[in-house]
Design brief:
This protein has twelve helices and 14 strands. By secondary structure, it is of the alpha/beta class. A hairpin with a 7-residue loop joins β2 and β3. α6 crosses α7.
């Protein structure tokens, strides 16, 4: 019997997660999970080798990795770590079939295969338009964005670098934040405000605007402070959630995502209840003349921690003819 197992990975700027997916029958069981810290390895290939050594003789013949960065001709240069890897490098490690896929394109593959229990509604639990495009975005070390383009039964996942689009402030306070950050960075992308470092940027900018010297806090500390009711931390996280919702609504318009907008990324999972209580959904719907277009669109948080693994496995099966 042919080996239907696939070594799958979900690799970002902070963590390299690996596992084995058995694709002999859905739903694909995931086993042998391992979470490695990227800063412990000199290269991506070294991290893959470390995992292969862990699993030993159980190494599958195929590998499919969801990676945080643009992929060009089977090669990725990681936006937030400086690592590089190619499908050729993976085949050199002894894999008969290898595929690299953008991590948010992998999530696009997974969304329609996950059960309803894998999601939590942000705002009203709308149905969405069956068969219509879907948007996936998520803030973590960076900001990932993708689209599942669907039309008349056909579906194609589209990776993007939407996180590097320009931040569009709404209201005087956000405009002041843009002015502060533009002095630091020049171009202020969405990722400069919607990511772990982005939350830190919002906090320090708001403190500067208020005439205070900001305390040096990292993103988890700001989130914990917001939960405890610290005014400065709360102001930063409230703005973060509002910008998140507004950006999600912008991408829904850009993609025509009437099938739904799905939120991934490590930050949303950590502030799940806060995000749902926040202005996220109100900002999502605040689209002026197109408010009626976005109001029926569901916004859902992806709860399944194996979603990227599932998407990578699905991508491997979808493209196996091209990568044999």
């Amino acid at each position: 019997m042919a080996d239907r197992r696939i070594l799958v990975g979900d690799v970002g700027g902070t963590h390299a997660r690996f596992a084995i997916a058995d694709t002999s029958q859905p739903p694909f069981p995931i086993e042998a999970r391992s979470d490695l810290e990227t800063d412990k390895f000199d290269s991506f290939a070294a991290a893959v080798r470390a995992y292969v050594e862990q699993i030993g003789a159980r190494k599958p013949k195929a590998v499919a990795l969801a990676v945080a960065g643009p992929i060009t001709k089977g090669r990725v240069h990681f936006t937030n770590s400086g690592w590089e890897l190619s499908e050729e490098d993976l085949r050199a490690l002894g894999f008969a079939r290898a595929i690299l896929i953008n991590d948010f394109a992998a999530l696009a593959f997974s969304v329609t295969s996950l059960p309803p229990t894998a999601f939590r509604a942000i705002g009203p639990d709308r149905e969405g338009l069956a068969g219509a495009p879907i948007t996936i975005l998520g803030a973590g070390t960076g900001l990932g964005v993708s689209c599942l383009a669907r039309y008349r039964g056909r579906a194609v996942p589209l990776a993007s670098e939407g996180g590097h689009m320009s931040f569009a402030p709404i209201g005087d306070q956000q405009l002041q934040v843009l002015c502060v950050l533009s002095k630091r960075f020049g171009h202020v992308s969405l990722e400069r405000v919607l990511s772990g470092p982005g939350l830190e940027n919002l906090y320090s900018a708001l403190e500067e605007i208020a005439g205070r010297k900001p305390t040096a806090l990292e993103a988890p500390e700001i989130s914990h402070g917001a939960e405890r009711g610290d005014p400065a931390c709360r102001a930063a996280q409230d703005m973060f959630c509002a910008i998140y919702g507004a950006a999600a609504g912008d991408f829904a318009l850009a993609h025509g995502a009437r099938g739904g907008v799905y939120i991934a990324g490590g930050i949303a999972a950590k502030i799940e209840d806060y995000l749902i209580r926040s202005r996220f959904r109100a900002a999502f719907e605040d689209k002026g003349r197109l408010a009626d277009f976005v109001k029926p669109i569901p916004t859902r948080l992806i709860l399944d921690k194996d979603a990227a693994f599932l998407g990578a496995a699905c991508a491997s099966l979808e493209f196996q003819g091209e990568h044999s």
